[in-house]
Amino acid sequence: MLKSNKPPLPLALFLLIGIIAISFSAIFIRWSSAPISIIAMYRLLIITACLLPFLIFQRVEITRISIRGWFQLLVSGV
Fold it and tell me: Which residues fall within 8 angstroms of residue 65, CB to CB, at 6 or more apart?
């Protein structure tokens, strides 16, 4: 028998959660009394924590990136 590669949760659910989160983020930032730099720091900290597991699971592929590829990633982020 062939195994199905169907994810346990539908991907549309994650898309919906992301859209709702982005929609409410501007409201929550407006309500916040924290300085802009603190808000930016926490937003970067949270997304880094969310993406870190993907980095750990894909470390073999990341080590295969050439120097030219790293340079292109650096330039594209500027």
Answer: 73
CB 62 within 8 A of CB 55: yes
pTM for the full model? 0.55
Tokens 């409410």 identify what position? 24
Cα angle value 75/54/43 (rounded, 5°): 65
**What is the spatial distance between Cα 62 and Cα 65, in angstroms, rounded to a whole number?**
6
- Per-residue pLDDT in tens (0 to 9) along the chain, 78 residues: 556 677 777 888 889 988 998 898 889 888 989 898 998 899 889 988 988 988 888 888 888 999 999 999 899 977
